[in-house]
């Protein structure tokens, strides 16, 4: 049945498992597909589709076995002692630490290993949960940390060797030939044979336990693997080779992709008359051909969609600028030398956003929406920014989901021309030989198959990173027991996490792809298929031997191995090769485990710091055993010891225990929070050797029943429930009606403290629960002393040295016999105790009244502040009672001594060049006021800048309006002047015609 009290752990673990799978897709899967995308064999969107399909297939068919290794090979299942809560919490912390680390690295474009991040996290929680000896540090039959981390060094080297071998084979068979195109076409079925055999072998050989393929004999495995690979080879020879021959050799540009079904009939297909050039894509890393669309005017942000959103507010991210033509590249190089880095960023941001805003797709709407609604000045939590953020949120979601689909990976990998990064990549590319596009086109189909194989291998191996710990959490939550060592992994879990991996690749994989592929060495389809094939073989070999291995390490090692086949170390960009992954789960697990009620019992084999037990107990006694709460008073140098002047000490007694006090007399409770071993050793000493006072029965029930751990109830030896107000028993919620409630009844809680030795109670509590009190003798066999206590407060009159009336407490204890059995005897004893308290109170009131007189406040000779106990004789029977005074005013001698101590401390600090306490507090306060003033000034400055900008904008609009009016007036005057001139001319002509006489006919 499900463990409902740990459902929140299961929910949190599920969240971090999906987050780890998302990061796995954004980091590791992006590494696997970066080679194909960088080689231009497949587009980014096509990689999303193929990646989703083959990740899902690899996870479902092969992924269960690897998940079982990570789950049980590092921490043995027996180490949890069937404690489901601790096991669930352990793997939840491992997922949280690993996913947080990989998310941070993905955000900063660092291609780390998700596999080794989670392996380190599981080892960390193993140390914090069950101790270092329980973690499998050695080889452990190929399943321990030694075997797993051995792959950290072996996997890149092995995958580099496989990749280099395959590429050298291609180079020997194809590239060095005088006419390499036919060799590339007719040898391609062999690579289909290799890829098909490896992919089939990974499914059949051991396979998924649910398919039962691991029980097949060896001949069956060999027959099925070679048969599938051979069948794929035959299909390639029948359909693929004629299709590529017609397209590349005959240069038939009219052939369509679906015509491959014609097979050998394509050999008889006549070539077009105008067939002069094969219609194949350009696979060059840096495109120089005219009309190339993939990199024309391409400017992409280097920090992802988050920066794309931020740049609309004025923050410029790093950009990548790649032009299409050679002339534009030269101009870009000249501009890169002239413009500063900041200007390049601003230029790239404006071009990128202008390009995206022109699109009619949802990304265009989102970018236009963000551009039209920028964030305002001030902090994000200001009201106008909160409203703007709410308006921008839908567009931000769209940009986060679709930004990667519009990202130009090739432009980001080649770098900005003229910059150090662009020049470095040019030097790396210059050492790589460029092969013809016809030959590379042949291997683009093979690379698609190898990419799918690599994705299938990733789903088979790295899906265990997230599903292994998640399977442990789900199994423990579902059954209520710690997950078994051979607990099955459900297919739906593999499917869910594989879809989450694909989502990470779709939305954030571009942030890793831009620093992989061509950023390491020159890529082409023939090189890319060699890299992916080498990495796939390595991953599958490790997976079949149940050894988790990093796909990132394998693909990086294969990329370096193929890059070195160029014959020089300069053909590899060593700045982007091997990353390192770390984790912080040990401290996280230790803190979370101590803050919860989840416990696991284990034998401590190694003493803390190898200190002997006798010395450890002596240290614990010194640190944890101190005076009870009623007896504490502040020292002269404590911040809670209030004074009216430097020379006069105010009596600083406080009944309440301030946790910020620095003079608590040895009770350093912080040591209990150091680690679980110290807590288990020191807690019994603290609870059994100290007198614990509680202000009321409510506080006692809350602290002992609700807050105190169950196993520590037996360690309580000394308890006092004593009120320090005038009404001794106040605020109690206990009555005869609810006394049987085990959660709140004080007496039921007391009966659980079987080892109780000393008990101090108020008289009101004892009288109210008489029947329960009479049962204490039989229920608590170790009880040796039962005391009725009354703490009475007395006010002194106000004194010149005191700002408030002084309150003095007097504790009146009377031991009560444990053998009282009759109710009459019990009532008589309680009545006599009340009479005694009244008599003592009158006596004490007469005693301390003279203390309110003016200075020097002399105390009676028998009552000093350093000896606060007094023996009083009261009643006709001359009964002697020992009472204790708390909060007595300091004597004149004590005040002088404290003043000398403060003066000595001030002189010591002054000689050492250090400020005194008052000076330090003053300087701190001045610093705080200065910081507050600076903050206010900054706010006022921003407001003033906004106001000035608003005024300038209004003035600019006003000037523009005035200028427009003036221009309109000027045009009107010109029209009027022109009309007047025309009229004047016409009038002159008329007058001239009048002066000229008419000719006679």
Automatic annotation (TrEMBL):
InterPro entries: DUF7730, Phos_transporter
Biased composition (Basic and acidic residues): 951-961, 985-994
Pfam families recorded: DUF7730, PHO4
Biased composition (Basic residues): 972-984
GO biological process: phosphate ion transmembrane transport
Keyword field contains Lyase: no
TM helices/strands, residue ranges: 47-64, 84-104, 116-133, 145-169, 181-205, 217-241, 491-510
Keywords: Membrane, Phosphate transport, Transmembrane, Transmembrane helix, Transport
Topology of this chain in the membrane: Multi-pass membrane protein
Protein name: DUF7730 domain-containing protein
Organism of derivation: Paracoccidioides brasiliensis
Top-level taxonomy: Eukaryota, Fungi, Dikarya, Ascomycota, Pezizomycotina
